[in-house]
Each structure stands twice: as structure tokens, then as C-alpha cells.
Amino acid sequence: MNSRAQILSRIKEHQPELTSLPADLTAPLQYADPVAMFSTVLGNIGGTAVPVSSYEEIQDYIKTHFADQKRIISTLPELAEVTEAGWEGQDPHNYEDIDIALIKAHFGVAENAALWVTEELMQQRVVPFICQQLAVVVQRKDIYSNMHEAYGKVADSVYGFGTFIAGPSKTADIEQSLVLGAHGPKNMTVFIMESR
Amino acid sequence: MNTGRKDHAGLADIFNEDEARVDWHDETLWFVRAKRDKAAHTLPEWEALRENASQIKDNVLSNLHDYLLEFEAKAQQNGITVHWAADAEEHNQIVHSILKAQNVTRIVKSKSMLTEECHLNEHLQKNGIEVIDTDLGERIVQLAEEPPSHIVLPCIHKKKEEIGELFHEHLGTPKGESDPQFLTAAARVHLREKFLTRKAAITGVNFAVAETGEFVVCTNEGNADMGAHLSDVHIACMGIEKIIPKRKHLAVFLRLLARSATGQPITTYSSHFNKPRAGQEMHLVLVDNGRTKQLGRADFRNSLKCIRCGACMNTCPVYRRSGGHSYHTAIAGPIGSILAPNLDMKEYADLPFASTLCGSCTNVCPVKINIHEQLYKWRQVIVKEGYADTGKTIAMKAMDFTLSHPSLYKTAGKAGRWVMKNAPFMVNNKLNAWYKQRDMPEPPKQSFSEWYKKNNNE
Ligand code: SF4
């Protein structure tokens, strides 16, 4: 008997009598102002929320705050003016020297300031992890209170890779001192776009 | 325990030689525990969430056979190669053969307690493959040639000066430099070079979804993602109990995991791997290594619900004052003391005794495992099987007596706490083997019976 068959038969023999799945949690916490909560939590975990009402505003922000950064790339055509052209489709190792990556998120979650991003919004999976700084654009109306709503939105969508990103890469492995920028982004800016 | 090597009490003695360090270790972990409490209190539905998670995991254990088949089929459809390993040895062989087929001799690995349990690094190194652990804490203990002492905080036992010394020796940082910010920046440079030059990456798995065939890996550092997305071959290793039925259940577990572990609302990254990247190979190894046996032990099968948050360690007065290495097994603390005897009852006969049975672990566990009750039950099994030494047997009998006489225990518990507070030297006697060192850790806020009463009437 191979291991697969052996493991499965032992499970069959040993697993207890079937119990049913519980009903979904009723009434998980809702925030009166999810955007305010999102911004507060993001600040607590080392990120910065920037409310904007147009892509021009984002471009201006980039020009003033990231003026000294060399390699700025984006997956958003609206930001093409201030970002590198033709960076897409290369070997992922070539993105090692990206200073700032600007991407879009499907939605954000107020309770933990996490943003849901799938592969097609990253161009290359490694982009939001390898960049020195990450900036994400999310629509104000797409910020939900909690993770149950979030997975309600993810639903049965199909993706090769998807991730919740909450703040910059971090570690507290040395004596519990928090340090931002463990391997990936040293900070994270979230542009919260007012829908018009 | 009778193997000539030191047992938990003996190893704890060594840890306790440096009293200042023990106090520091104790306080650091208590600080993490306090952060957990704060995070839990932000959610009015915390208790309902725990109950929900517990019931989902109960369902998983009762239907594991079908869920594994469902998961395997979906994962294969998604282009993931699925392997099955009966034990640690087979797991190690599978991983090695995948690497060998690709002629890979240098790899990066993110945190996976399963690979620690299987001693994968040693196996690969023996076969000429260099393994770089990329979680900062794991890299630190790897440089120190030590195992992790905690499942979430691998180098929690190390002082920054010692880490500075290690980095000076291995990474060439200035002598005497021990600033965490500085050392982390040095590690960043050191490890980014590894990510960029290694062709294969190993990661652990936090959750695997039967419904979709995807697996989820949670990190704060982003090291699992850096490794996986830059690799030609990604190998993910998981115990068979990591399955959850549906994608929506991730909401429940992701809300609980980081809050219980470190008090964060969520880890920085919760990455869902569904399909390999174009041109990439993705393998997943499903490992039994004693889990099906534990599934058959009615008293202990609940331990398979564990999501490895580490909360039971942070809160445990014995763990905090004895250190992770005193448990001489990959997974330390209360939960490790339940898992280890399943694998080798003789070798780990001491571990269920390394507890005050105060019940704090059970109170914080996000999936409501009855940890301290299982520790108590293991003691009975171990004594019956003849693996306990005499000192432990007597202590055990006294414990057994009080626990089977609830009213007596109530008095003993209350009196015991008075003694602990006011005359701690009185319990420092041979009968109470664990306390022989010095002052008792710290009296639990409520005795087991008070706790038991409260939690069974509500
Ligand atoms: S037993 Fe519970 S508290 Fe301990 S690590 Fe596992 S899930 Fe966390």
C-alpha cells in the first residue's frame, strides 16, 4: 500500500463521527465609518492613508513626496505620466531595484487595514514584495468593515495568486523591537480615492 | 526521559541559572500575551469566533478523509503537484528528490514548523543541499546552530547583544553593534541576496482550502513571498490537519491567528497560492507523521485543531520561566507537550508534567483546545504505561487525588495560591518536582476548579 492509500485508510478508520459545520457568524463588528477605522489601523501598523479625489492628485503626491526615487513603476495606466514605461513582463529578478511600486487593490478591510490584491493587479507576483516602498490605490466605497464581508467579495473568484497586504513588511524578532522593512517594502502608502 | 539526556526539569535548571535572563524572558512573553488580550478585546464577537473556529476544526477532523481528497483533486486541477508522506523520513526524501531532479543545491526556506518537526534541514544538508532560513528569527537561530525556541518567535530567548555578536561573526556587522534596527537592515541585505540567487523555495502552509485547492501562507516579513515568487520551484509542506473546508472560513481563522499570536489585527501578508506562476513548478507535500495516530486517540485528537499561534506558550508560566529549549522537541510549550508524547511516549514522558495545569493555555487558545485537560490525561497514560519516574508518579498521584475529589481540590487550590503568594518556600520540596528551583512562577488568577466551574456553567 502506498503512503497516500495508507494515510487515507488510517484517517477513515480513526476519524470521529461526522459533526456538522457551524452556521456563519451572525453580526460581526461593523464600523460606523469604515474608512476612518481603516486609516487609523493602517497608521497603527506603520502605513499612511492619503485621501485623494483624482489620479492627478496622486501624481502630484508622487512628484512631491517621491521626487528623489529613481525607479517608480505602476500597473495603473492613469499614472503612466509619472512612472517608468515598458517595465512589464520581465524576469521577476529584474525588479530588485524598484524603489516604488504603485498598484491597485480590489478592496480594503477596516478591522485590519488589509488590502486584497490578486495577480492581475500586480503584473508580476513579486512586485508588491520586492519593491522598497509600496503604494496602493483603493476606492473609498470599497472599504469593508470585516474579513467576513471581505471573503464575501472574494467569493468564488478565480486567481492564480492573491494576497491580503496590511502595512509594510515588518519584524520584531530581535527582542520584540518593531522594525519596518524586513525583506520587502519599508513603508506603505494607501491612496483612498473618493468616488465621483 | 530514561535515555540519559536531560529532561524538561533538568534543562529548565540550566535555563534558570541566569535569573535575570529568566525574568526578562518571562516579562517579554507576558508582554506579547498582554497584546493578545488587547487585540481580542477589540472584537465583541471574540468568543463567538473562537467557538466558530473550534466547530469548523471539529468538522474538519470528522471529515478529513473526504476533505483531503477534495483538496488534492482541486490542487491538481490548478497545476500543483501533490505528494503524500507517511512520516518525516518520507517527507524529507520527497523534498530532496524534487530538488535533485532540478539539480538544485542551494535553497531558501520560510518558516515551517513541520519541516522542523521532520528535521528537513539536517537531511538536506547531509545530502549536500544548503538551506537558508529566511525568517529573521529563524536565520538568527540557524546562525547560532540552535533550533527555534518558540513557534512564532523563534529567537525570543536571545538578547540583542548575542544577536549582534552572531551578525558580527557571520555577516560582518561592526563589533558591539546591537541595535535591532541596524541588525535587521543588515539581515535584509544578506537575505535579499539569497532570495535573488536561489532557484528553489520551501514554505510552510497555514491553511489549505478543500473547496478551492489553494493554500495560504501568513508572514509579517514577506519572506515566504520573496522566496516563492522568485523561485523556479516552490515546495510547500503541510501537515494533513491544516485543511479547512471553504474559502470563507479563512475569514474566521485570519481574524483569530495574528491577534492570538502577537496582538496584530492580521499578519502583513496572507498569501493565497492557487496556481504556479507561468514557467514555475509548484509542489505540495501532505504529511502524516503521527497525525493519523493522534486522530485515533479520542482524548488527544483535539490537539490536531491547533493553528500554531503560540498563545498557549506566551501565557504559560512554566514555558515563560523554563524557555522553549527545555522542551527538547520542535514544538515547545503546552501544545508541544501534547503532540510530542504521541510521537514518542518514552522520549517525551516528562513534558506533560511540565505544567501547573493552571488552564491559562485553554483560556487563550483560539480554537478552544482543552490543552490542560489533555496534559493531565497524558500524565495518567504515561504513568500507567510505566514511563514516569518515581518523583513524578507521586506528584501525579497527589494531583490525581485532588482532581478526582473536586471539593478537596477547591480547598487545595485556594490554599495553594495562598501558599504561593505568602510562603513560596513551602512548595519548594521534592514532591512538587517542577517547583524545586526557586520561587513559584506566579499564581494563576483562578484555580483550576474555579475556572472549571465558571466555564462549565456558562
Ligand atoms: S494549542 Fe491553541 S493556543 Fe496553542 S498554539 Fe495551538 S492554536 Fe495556539
From TrEMBL, chain A:
Source organism of this protein record: Pedobacter steynii
Annotated LUD domain residues: 94-193
Lineage: superkingdom: Bacteria
Name the UniProt record assigns to this protein: L-lactate dehydrogenase complex protein LldG
A Pfam family of this chain: LUD_dom
Gene3D superfamilies, per the entry: NagB/RpiA/CoA transferase-like
From TrEMBL, chain B:
Record Gene3D superfamilies: Alpha-helical ferredoxin (1.10.1060.10), NagB/RpiA/CoA transferase-like (3.40.50.10420)
Residue intervals of the 4Fe-4S ferredoxin-type domain: 296-326
UniProt entry tagged with the keyword Transferase: no
Short name of one Pfam family: LUD_dom
GO molecular function, one term: metal ion binding
Domain of life: Bacteria
Segments of this protein annotated with the region Disordered: 439-458
GO biological processes: lactate metabolic process
Alphabetical UniProt keywords: 4Fe-4S, Electron transport, Iron, Iron-sulfur, Metal-binding, Repeat, Transport
NCBIfam families reported in the protein's UniProt record: LutB/LldF family L-lactate oxidation iron-sulfur protein (TIGR00273)
Protein name: L-lactate dehydrogenase complex protein LldF
